Amino acid sequence: MSDRVITVLGAGTMGHGIAQVAAMAGYETRLFDVDEGALAAGAARISANLEKGIARGKVTAEIRDAALALLTTHTDLGEAAAGSDAVIEAAPERLELKQQLLRECAEAAGPNTLLGTNTSSLAISRIAEAVPDPERVVGMHFFNPVHIMALLEIVQGKRTDDQSVGRAREIGERMGKTPIVVKDSPGFASSRLGVVLGLEAIRMLEEGVASAEDIDTAMRLGYRHPMGPLRLGDLVGLDVRLDIARYLHRELGSPQFEPPSLLERMVEEGKLGQKTGEGFYRWDD
Length: 285
Ligand code: NAD
Fold this sequence. Notes:
single chain, about 15% strand, 12 helices, about 50% helix, Rossmann fold, 2 domains
């Protein structure tokens, strides 16, 4: 039997986007946040995204109306999770918080509810330790902005069963995403590979191999990347990149994850990329 009701925990950058694609896919969607202001802001962002979609001819008024009719907002976790078929957690990246939320949902929602987490770096197997039946805990790693990015990285923890992976896959496909299945290892598939490329580009810049523009152009025109690694680093935020590099270096021990000194220096100087107006590029608007 197909899943029908999805509860999204956290209405921030990722949560509002996941709720939007869930409602657009026809799921009864409940968006939960502890912060009423964040919840209202998340709902407003969903409406704004849908309006933008209409203006661009990508969304019809019928799809917008149907999606908004399926969406409700909640500040009571028990109410949001009761009778839900799948929970997708998108709360801040803290192990204890994610464990506590999934534990509460496991009780409130029922024994068959799929427990998904959108963590970008924590081990799924660790998060699942908090739940009596870790077989139903699965990583569902969406990308920002969720309504545009096509990838869903499904992460199978040590004890996640195949049925849960299958349900996560079905949900992702119904949302229009292309799922890949990855073992629970640091950086999953996407960050591990993407970060190596980004760090090597920084090392090349530091060594004076080429300018930032030319390194990026090499990847765009030579390898058909839609955007070069240095520009992408500016968009992600160099502080975020540095944190992930340090984490992967610690966990995997490979020298390619050692943060280049140029990256450390830029973060110390507050050159974090687009959000501060300067990174490898200038972002004056
Ligand atoms: P965010 O800070 O934008 O949003 C987090 C939301 O969670 C906030 O609205 C906050 O009010 C809410 N929250 C706080 N405590 C809560 C609780 N106890 N219960 C429910 N909600 C609570 O964060 P984000 O960028 O959306 O990240 C959320 C998760 O997604 C993190 O695990 C992050 O690692 C992961 N992720 C982020 C990105 C990204 O590009 N931002 C990409 C992939 C995965």
